[in-house]
Design a protein that fits this description.
- This protein has 23 helices and 18 strands.
- With about 750 residues, it is α+β, with helices and mostly antiparallel strands.
- The protein has four domains: about 220 residues, no CATH class; about 70 residues, Alpha-Beta Plaits (2-Layer Sandwich), CATH 3.30.70; about 220 residues, no CATH class; about 230 residues, no CATH class.
- Strand 2 and strand 3 form a beta hairpin.
């Protein structure tokens, strides 16, 4: 009986069945896509960690005997042990241990260390890799967000889908309350009715779930390939993502999908089965329409048809509210995301790439090289096709600024009163500030002296005498002023730099207070105080506004290097090509520099135009990922509105038959349909737009970007297309409903209780 009833209902109410199938398909598609993308993100992270850090699980360093290797291998859970030296000049040996079961890493490794006589502090765990397999230890305090983020997103998606799919099932089930009241009165039990409805939901959802899951797998594959194409392989630290899929992912996806759909169907079925026969029979399955006096706006614009439309929408406001909220969320997420990336692209271009037009074209990092021992300076500076080339190295020192040295302009905004404690330390004689040293090759330093109007010489330093007004938050239009009082360079002008620390207590070690470490100082003459910087890519005082930057020649650096503690490990080559140099010309410069120095040094090279293109690819890749999710949200919202609208209109056949029986013409009924469609589609857009404007205004204010600049590149086209998609989906639902309404027989619909 129940089988025949369900098949007859689904046959006679195809629109209602279609709305349920669409909802089930969207649910399966989204969850399959999420699970597929998460698995590939997890796999990509595992591969990245293995490439960068290695695939070892734990590591023990020290000096070991020959028999220690066998002792380790005798542990039941140890899979492999790899031996290598800690460093070329170190006698210590490093043992990389691989386990069969990662759950034993934290319990077995201390035992292994004890048996071979290694100290506990010599043990290192590959926390990042172990966390990817859900193996954690209390000592690992770093946040591992991949799994929590996936669980949170999946739960949020499942909850949203339950709310959305529930409406599709509720529309179909609630339309038959009258019928089930009759069934109950002749002996049908609540359990039988609930089972019938759940079986009906299973029959309608089976094919959409399978198709949706397969579509989600294909979608995740396509999205991954899109990211690979957009990002390419030229981005540092990134390798090509290879799509993969595990049977357990499919099992998990099917389980979550089926559970989500089952809950969505069980909720209205449970509610319907609890109705008493009398309550159910009194309910005709129609909308309970009441004359309301608050539809003045629709009545004023569209007359009687507008009032009828408003009354119908209010009667179904709970179901339509969910559809509207899903559309509002989707529209806002998509619009704000598009605007965010537009603002981000403009900001990056203005604050980085356009700023460095004419500053640098090619940057080469020379690994583990000191500028004072670099022998290829003259050859590089003599390359044809370049405007200039500067070889430099960075070092870190500190300097004390006294009250007397501080400029009056700096005092006017509070001096060091705004300085964070990690950048500035107050001392008895003044304030201890960072004093970065930029060591330039001699030729470049002499050219810099000529640039600022100082007699070229290699005996002293040039100090960047400028500080930003920290009370002005506008980073696009900062205010600069003198750092220290203007003073003439001469015999008495000198700068004393301090570098504290030694091999045992490096300067960056904050565990020991300043003054308790070994101090090293270097005094150098000051050639000039200037507000002009040499043509480098470096940005000074960007985070630490209180830096006092020193520029010195390599000849002076050789004299004070031992006193100041040495510089950073790498040196840099800043190359500026000819004006309006093309990407091909810059690539030729890179190749020529590589031929000169790559045989002696390990180098990393980049050029400005290529980096600009890479940045665009990164933005496009992120837009593809986030845009894909936003579009998916939009599809869910549109699909939800479509299915609910279709079911909503289908449920009202008897209502439309009554309207026509008392004289409502097809043209007037069509006008009512158009009014309802306009309200359903337009309301989410008009509600979202003010919220979007507020969000974009906040983004513009935070980035100090002018409205006119943003509007010139605002993503109006994709936002307009989404609006049209929303309007089109609702219009299509009403068009399909209108086609069915035109064909109805008044007598047949008013008489037949199975036609909704």
């Amino acid at each position: 009986m129940w089988k025949d009833y369900s098949s007859g209902y689904m046959k006679n109410n195809r629109s209602s069945s279609l709305s349920v199938m669409i909802a089930a398909f969207i649910s399966a598609l989204l969850l399959s896509l999420l699970c597929g993308l998460f698995y590939n993100a997890w796999k990509y992270e595992v591969e990245r960690i293995k490439q960068e850090e290695g695939g070892w699980h734990s590591r023990i360093s020290g000096e070991f005997a020959e028999g220690d290797m066998e002792t380790i291998k005798n542990f039941a859970n140890v899979k492999e042990v790899v031996v290598h030296q800690k460093g070329a000049d170190s006698a210590e040996t490093v043992l990389d241990i691989y386990f069969d079961g990662m759950g034993f890493v934290f319990s077995d490794t201390p035992c292994i260390a004890q048996q071979i006589g290694a100290a506990p502090e010599k043990i290192v765990y590959n926390y990042e890799l172990l966390a990817m397999y859900l193996v954690r230890d209390s000592s690992d305090t770093a946040p591992r967000l991949l799994f929590p983020m996936f669980i949170l997103i999946t739960l949020a998606a499942s909850f949203s889908l339950i709310v959305i799919i529930h409406n599709s099932f509720a529309v179909s089930m609630n339309a038959r309350i009258h019928q089930f009241g009759i069934f109950s009165s002749i002996g049908a039990t609540p359990k039988q009715m609930k089972t019938c409805l759940l079986q009906e939901a299973a029959a309608l959802s089976a094919v959409p779930v399978i198709v949706g899951n397969l579509s989600g797998i294909v979608g995740s594959m396509g999205l991954l390939q899109m990211v690979n194409v957009l990002l390419g392989s030229g981005i540092a630290g990134r390798h090509k993502a290879v799509f993969g899929y595990h049977p357990l992912v499919l099992v998990l996806t099917l389980f979550v999908t089926i559970l989500t759909i089952w809950i969505s169907a069980w909720l209205p079925a449970r509610k319907l089965s609890k109705l008493t026969p009398l309550q159910a029979i009194k309910n005709t399955g129609e909308l309970q329409l009441k004359r309301r006096k608050n539809s003045y706006f629709l009545s004023l614009l569209f007359g009687v048809e507008g009032e009828l439309a408003g009354n119908a929408l209010k009667a179904q406001r709970k179901a339509l509210r969910t559809a509207s909220l899903s559309l509002i969320s989707a529209f806002m997420a998509f619009t704000v995301m598009q605007c965010f990336f537009a603002i981000s692209g403009i900001s990056t271009r203005e604050t980085y790439f356009e700023r460095y037009q004419g500053v640098w074209d090619v940057m080469v990092t020379v690994k583990d090289a000191d500028v004072d021992t670099f022998e290829e300076t003259d050859r590089i500076q003599g390359i044809n096709g370049l405007e200039s080339a500067i070889i430099y190295q960075k070092a870190m020192a500190k300097r004390i600024i006294t009250e007397e040295e501080m400029s009056e302009e700096m005092k006017s905004f509070g001096g060091f009163s705004h300085a964070p404690g990690n950048y500035v330390t107050q001392m008895d004689g003044g304030w201890l500030v960072d004093a970065p040293i930029i060591v330039l090759d001699d030729n470049s330093f002499l050219a810099y002296c000529e640039q600022i109007g100082v007699t070229p010489q290699l005996s002293g330093a040039v100090i960047l005498n400028q500080i930003r007004d920290v009370t002005n938050p506008d980073f696009r239009h900062p205010d600069f002023m003198p750092y220290v009082k203007a003073q003439s360079a001469g015999e008495n002008a000198a700068s004393i730099l301090i570098q504290s620390g030694n091999e045992e207590t490096p300067f960056g070690d904050t565990s020991m207070p300043y003054g308790e470490k070994e101090e090293m100082t270097a005094e150098m003459p000051v050639l000039a105080y200037t507000e002009k910087v040499p043509v480098l890519r470096e940005e000074y005082a960007k985070l630490n506004y209180y830096e006092l930057v020193h520029f010195i020649p390599v000849s002076l650096w050789k004299k004070i290097k031992g006193q100041i503690g040495g510089g950073e490990e790498d040196s840099y080559i800043r190359v500026l090509g000819k004006e309006n140099a093309s990407l091909e010309e810059l690539n030729m410069l890179q190749d020529e520099i590589g031929r000169i120095i790559s045989g002696k040094y390990i180098i990393e090279s980049e050029n400005r135009i290529q980096e600009y293109e890479t940045n665009d690819k990164q933005i496009q890749g992120m837009m593809a990922i986030f845009g894909g999710f936003c579009i998916l949200l939009a599809i869910i919202g549109i699909g939800n509105v479509f299915s609910n609208t279709l079911g909503f209109v289908r449920q009202r056949k008897r209502e439309f038959a009554r309207y026509m029986s008392i004289g409502l013409t097809p043209r007037e009924l069509k006008k009512m349909f158009c009014t309802e469609a306009l309200v359903i589609a337009g309301k989410p857009i008009f509600v979202s737009l003010p919220l979007v404007i507020i969000a974009v205004a906040y983004l513009l204010k935070s980035s100090y970007l002018e409205v006119g600049v943003f509007m010139a590149e605002a993503p109006l086209l994709p936002i307009s297309l989404l609006m049209l998609a929303i309007l089109g989906s609702v219009a299509l639902a009403y068009f399909l409903a209108w086609r069915n309404v035109r064909k109805i027989s008044l007598t047949e619909v008013l008489k037949d209780d199975t036609m909704m």
